[in-house]
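Is it possible to get an amino acid sequence alongside its tokenized fold?
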Amino acid sequence: MDRWMVCGDDAQTQEAARRLHEALPQAQLSVCSSAQDLRVALRGPARGSSVLVAGPCDGVRPINLAAAFAADGCAHEVVLCSADASGSLISRARRAGISRIVRDASELGRGGARAGQAMALPAVPQADWQAAVPSPPASVAAGPAPKLAPVLCFASGRGGVGKTALVAGCACLASSWGMRVGCLDLDLAFGDLFSCFGAEGPADLSELGLLGMPAQALDAGTLARLGKSVAPGVTVWGSCELPEHAELVEPLAGELIRGIASSCDLLLVDTSPAWTDACALAVQVADRLVLVSDDLAGGVASLAKAAALSVRLGVARTRVVRVANRCVRSGDDDDFLLQAHVGLETARSHRVLFEDDVPELLGAGHATELMAGRGSFSGSAGAFLAKTLEELGVLPDDAAASEALAWSERKKRLWPFSREVA
């Protein structure tokens, strides 16, 4: 069932909620007149709901409210209701990651079979509508959930796009900025994230499945013992030493993510090309889903399918980040992004440049040395990571992090005796 949260504290909000209920009578609908309470609810019991910003709230303009909800990344989609949206408002909404703008809430019921049926139904009387709209969950007032580290889940529609390389590189960069980084390899059968750091073997999780360990037994001590420190400030969990043990560990993926996130400053989750149940869970709970792709043959189709699947799993479009990996300096990613638009309408887009020696260095276990250099891969990966952490509000107050935030691709002049310019 669709869940909608209508935000606003004026008469227009009540009218918008009534029209939305008429258009989508099967949807679960709540009205919230406190922006702060709604933001708390979206981080907890109402996470994954869609939000309709129908009017001002707490003295804040609707466009600013919608931009804040989009930046939080906890809503399935954020819709702004504006009867007279100007071109500048539409442009600002697009930059803020707001999913769409509608003139009237009834427009949200158009376009699908269910919506067509809903529009044919008689209008709901005012008294019946008020009974159908519950108050926000009581747990909203209980305060935010216990603080966990932000989770970045790296996924793709196929293998070979450099996803594991990007995870390893981001782990080294974040640790060099002073963060305690946890890496969970959810390619439990064949994952090799550990090898990028020169470790001799995986931080084997088979014990969890072989002992039939219940979820509540995954305490801090157990997790610390199973993790493997692979670089200063970087700890890796996974995969399984024997691939056949993977299916025994998968049911504990949720507790692994929660437990690791409570013991570090940033959790990076690497997934398998085939989206197992464990990977799908990580995709759903992540603060940011990073869809990694390249521009080789078949890349558009696999990216589009992965994006569409994430939307069907309930991932808010505002939580999706798209990374075009293995790019070259002359590559132009704009056309590729437009082709793979399914589920990526409001996704942030980044390009990560690859140099010829990146696979060789990572294959030899020199991720730390690679990211300590000033090459295109470390620079572009750092820019992606810094911008994402800044968006989440957790970018460290570190000179190197600030430098990464300002990084830009260096280009060459197209005439003889040129020199590289920023």
